[in-house]
Amino acid sequence: MRAPNEIDFWRGFALVTIFINHIPGIYFERFTFRNVSLSDSAELFVFLAGCALRILVDGAARALPAQWLVFRLEARAFHVYVAQVFVTEMAIALLAAAAFLLDAPYLLDWHNTSAVFNDPVRAHIGLVLLTHQLGYFNILPLYVVLLFIAPAVALLHRYARVLLPLVSFGIYAWSLISGVNLPTWPVEGTWFLNPLTWQFIYVLGFLMAGADGIGGFARRHHSVLRWLALPVVLLGAYVAFTNFSPDPVDVPEPKLLFTFDKTFLAPARLIHSLALAAIFAGTFKIIRPWIPRSSEFLCLLGRNSLNVFCALSLLSLMGQILRFIFGGYVALDALIVILGILLMGFIAWAAEWRERLRADLAKKPDLPPHSSAF
Fold it and tell me: Residue 183: beta bridge partners?
């Protein structure tokens, strides 16, 4: 178990806010930072994923030959892919059970699930190919794609460092200008979070986490960058308070450059998320002494982000169903949030307990190989 650190802390913070925001209409969503921000937890989560990749590449995997580095990263990507397929099927089963028990067949139409019940053969092929995604379950598919391209990011960084930001920015700009996105199937449409553009903030997180290059420059000039970021963050808060959004009809071509589109990670959202990172980078050491227990808890969530993310996805869907049954009472909303966060913490704790138990059993010489049931 690694020690509490800034990346895990903010990743845990992002997981809690994603859980709350994935229950539409819940009372407590008005207190999440997206209400005072142009960007939200999705940008934060992907940016931190890029940071984590850089720490791995420069740390534990630094001495690995290229082929073993690729194998390690692709194995992780496949692990997340399996988690995405599993949690999606669990969500479908949960909605089906709720529709059956509540005699509410319209629940089968929630969150783009109708194709699964009306056209199950093609829909399940789409689920496996990630071309069919449920609403509120469409962050992990993006994460899967980013992890599958992680070896390319790592190898470009290792062998052609100058090309990495150029290639990433080129793909981002081309997708914004052309409007290209990955298609969905069998339901016609496009991905809610376009991997062609969101890869750029992933790569920026990777670059910013380094001790050299852009990351080194940012560290050397952090105080200046923080002051430059402050008006951007304040402007984003004003935009959020006023619900201002440019009308696509009134902006020039290419329109995606001037809107606040989340699917394509429009430049305004990207710049604002980077400004937030500049403001809050390095604050963990200040925050931790003031709220030590909460900091430890968020770091616990962040260390076990995949398990927690899968859990929060299902817990938020359960929260939606409970609010559908009983209505949107503040007391119920509070119960959902409290129980949900406690269960997220329990799942993170159980994951670490299991790993500690495996490590302890492995140290005992009297146990035969592979004797552990874990």
Answer: 190
| Backbone torsions φ then ψ of 162, nearest 5 degrees | -65, -30
DSSP letters spanning 190-212: E-SS-HHHHHHHHHHHHHHTSSS
CB within 8 Å of 268: residues ≥ 6 apart: 38, 258, 259, 260
Please state at what angle helix 267-280 crosses helix 195-208, rounded to 10 degrees: 20
Separation CA 147–CA 170 (nearest Å): 19
Residues facing 184 on adjacent strands: 189
Phi, psi of 184 (to 5 degrees): -105, 160
Token readout for 320 is: 């939606």
Helix (H) or strand (E) holding 190: strand 189-190
Which helix or strand (DSSP H or E) is residue 93 part of? helix 66-101
Q: Residue 263 and residue 313: Cα distance in Å, rounded? A: 19
Q: How many CA atoms lie within 13 A of 90 on its CB side?
A: 16
Query: 231 — phi, psi (to 5°)?
Result: -65, -30
Q: What is the pLDDT of residues 260-274, one digit of tens each?
A: 999 999 999 999 999
| pLDDT tens digits, one per residue of 188-217 | 999 999 999 999 999 999 999 998 889 999
CA gyration radius, the chain: 21
Q: What are phi and psi of 4, to 5 degrees?
A: -55, 135
* Number of alpha carbons in the 13 Å side-chain half-sphere of residue 86: 11
Helix (H) or strand (E) holding 117: helix 114-118
Q: Are the C-beta atoms of residues 66 and 158 closer than 8 Å to each other? A: yes
> What does the angle CA 266 – CA 312 – CA 267 come to, to the nearest 5 degrees?
5
Q: Rounded distance, CA 133 to CA 184, Å?
A: 8
